[in-house]
Amino acid sequence: PPPPPTAATTATQQQQQQQQLPKAAAVGAAYAPLVSGRLKAAAANPQLAKTLDPASGLQDNYSVLGVLGKGSYGEVRLAVHKLSKLRAAVKSISRAKLDAKLRKRVEAEVKLHRQLRHPHVVRLLEVISSSSTICLCMQYAPGGTLREVLDTRGALSEVVARRYTRQMLGALHYCHNVMHIVHRDLKLDNMLLDANDNLLIADFGFADSVGASNRKLKLLCGSPHYSAPEIFAQQEYVGSHVDLWSLGVLIYTLLNAHFPFQAASMEALGKKVMRGKWDRPLNASAAASALVHSILTVAPAKRATLDDICQHEWVLAEAARPEDVIPFEGQAAAPWNDEAAAKLDQMGCSAALVRFHVGQDAHNHVTAAYELMLADHLAGQQPAEPAPAAAAAEP
Ligand code: AMP
Questions:
Q1: Ligand 1 site, residue 192, Cβ cutoff 6 A
Q2: Could you state, in chain order, the average pLDDT of each consecutive group of 10 residues for the chain (395 residues)?
Q3: pLDDT (tens digit per residue) in 38-65
Q4: What's the pTM?
Q5: What is the C-alpha separation between 31 and 95, in angstroms, rounded?
Q6: Protein residue whose Cα sits closest to atom 3 of ligand 1
Q7: Distance from Cα 67 to the centre of ligand 1, integer Å
Q8: Is the CB of 91 under 6 A from ligand 1?
Q9: How many helices (H) and strands (E) does the chain have?
Q10: Does the chain have fewer CB atoms within 10 Å around its N or its C terminus?
């Protein structure tokens, strides 16, 4: 079998990928009009010329602003993407801080996150890799995290919690059942909100690909308050079962603004989680309580499945079928949108060039500009929703 990828090969692969930006010699006659379009566009916009340089670094393409947050192995900063003039979030990871294990984790994060395209998964736009740093350039979520929402507002109403839960279920259904990827670190801090208060799952730093057979995993990871009993018991586990346990903790916490299991030490927390008895009953409707009980079931095989949860009366309230309310659908590739491309064209990045790279399913400065523009364009078209605080009251 081929040797596992190393950071060096990832950097080389990325350079190769960036070098695949069309060049007159490489692309041949079929793309000649695109290439001359590109050169014309580059001449009209010096910034574009820079963005098309395969050796360009983060600062060539993004103006980096303040720190948004700190993750397990990198800082996330707000940045402005120079070509599209739109905001992005950049997670920068210093290579000096990476040992061999962490390097593999980052490679897995990039490989898996890059494949995911769902309305409730934060989009990884491009990766800019240098000898010192790996930068993951992502869709920016201006609404903060669900932790910040709970810190400022306290427990959520069931209407609001249900809306976020449905969005998490849509993303999880896509990750688990379509892409066969498990997250393994679902928590409030990794639930981001976009400008329309839509949830975006972030941080695939512990994600793994489990295949259609849903193979068992060994790595004990995640955040203690959200960790399943089988993790505390240090057993091999099914990744999707562990994600669903964390989802149960999340629903409980959204409704009560405290965790179901808390303790002064890790050992005491583990004992509580393995017994499965919550510190306090859930202060919510009987349906919500029944749902969370079915998810926070200690034996993984008896735990509610994703399908059980999607069909549960609390999740489905006021909807006939799960597919009416849960956004199951992801996308295999970026959809083409003439208006978003036309906006970039006006900024000097020719629509033909954009179409070429989008058609190749590339991850580079041009597709990053297009995806940012597309998201901005679609967000502007969304009908205004009532603010969550104003949503109808419910028990
Ligand atoms: P992470 O390393 O992905 O866990 O991110 C650490 C923190 O950075 C998160 O808890 C958020 O506060 C913030 N953050 C991460 N990604 C984004 C993003 N795409 N947009 C806005 N803030 C983010």
A1: yes
A2: 34 39 32 50 59 68 90 86 93 90 93 96 94 92 96 96 97 98 97 95 96 94 96 97 98 98 96 97 97 98 97 90 86 92 91 91 90 88 50 38
A3: 555 555 666 655 555 556 688 888 999 9
A4: 0.84
A5: 37
A6: 203
A7: 9
A8: yes
A9: 18, 11
A10: N
Which atom of ligand 1 lies closest to the CA of 138?
Answer: 19
184: closest CA among 237, 110, 126? Answer: 237
372 lines ligand 1 (CB under 6 A): no
Burial (CB count <10 Å: 0-12, 13-18, 19+), residue 201:
buried
Can you tell me which residue has the tokens 């932790």? 147
Q: Are 88 and 80 spatial neighbours (Cβ–Cβ below 8 Å)?
A: yes
* Residue 150: Cβ-neighbour burial (10 angstroms; 0-12, 13-18, 19+): middle
Closest listed residue to residue 88, CA positions, set 125, 141, 140: 140
C-alpha distance across the termini of the chain, in Å: 57
Write down the residue that tokens 């930068």 correspond to. Answer: 135
User: Tell me: the pLDDT tens digits for 323-347?
Assistant: 778 999 999 889 999 999 999 999 8
Q: What's the length of the chain?
A: 395
Contact 292, 254 (CB under 8 A): no
